[in-house]
Amino acid sequence: QQPVQSPQAVILREGEDAVINCSSSKALYSVHWYRQKHGEAPVFLMILLKGGEQKGHEKISASFNEKKQQSSLYLTASQLSYSGTYFCGTDDFGNEKLTFGTGTRLTIIP
Amino acid sequence: GAGVSQSPRYKVAKRGQDVALRCDPISGHVSLFWYQQALGQGPEFLTYFQNEAQLDKSGLPSDRFFAERPEGSVSTLKIQRTQQEDSAVYLCASSSGFERQFFGPGTRLTVL
If 0-12 CB within 10 Å is exposed, 13-18 middle and 19+ buried, where does residue A23 land? Predict the structure, then answer.
């Protein structure tokens, strides 16, 4: 079953913060986050491993709650370049096979 | 190479034709994946190779779909007797093994 992401879509003004959630019905080994712009390939953001720590860069970070089978992506002080569709990809068995979520379309306006 | 490359970038086929889609992964990457992405949807797993071994083909929609990676580098996804429902973007990704997957630009297949 496909992970469910929320919200489905969000519009923000430049500089605002966003949280994107990914929820699975299965126990997860790892969660991968990607951003895809229209007509382009998905671009990797980060991996969160079972038992691992919260990861992040300066303005993009993520958490992984194994017990709740959920992951969240945090975008701080959003920039215009953050616009796109965000997908979480879950690895249920530790075999690299990813099941991608329903997607969250993020639009940043000036 | 600099990244994952795919060819052709666009393919238009008449219903019933056979097509072959090529993927050149990043040099040295052990793992190679094929995904199908319909408009407005996330990528859906088709099949996965580790070197030349096809470890999982559970996502291939029918026996019209066939993938190979004979020498453990370049891979080809073949679709026989194409149908309109096969129209989608076909994405290839590679990784060095249990790491981030690098995606290619995709092949947009349109079946008329």
Answer: middle
Find the closest chain A residue to B58 by CA distance.
Answer: A97
Nearest by CB to residue A41, choosing from B98, B100, B104, is: B104
A97 and chain B in contact, CB less than 8 A: yes
Contacts of residue B110, defined as CB under 8 A and 6 or more positions apart, other chains included, come to: B10, B11, B12, B13, B87
Residues of chain B with Cβ-Cβ distance to A32 below 8 Å are 100-101
Residues counted in chain A: 110
pLDDT per residue rounded down to tens, chain A (110 residues): 899 999 999 999 999 999 999 999 988 889 999 999 998 999 999 888 877 666 666 689 998 988 888 999 999 999 999 999 999 999 988 888 899 999 999 999 99
pLDDT at B1: 53
CB atoms within 10 A of CB B15: 11
Look at B97 and A96 and tell me if their CB atoms are within 8 Å.
Answer: yes
Please report residues of A whose CB lies closer than 8 A to that of B55: 95
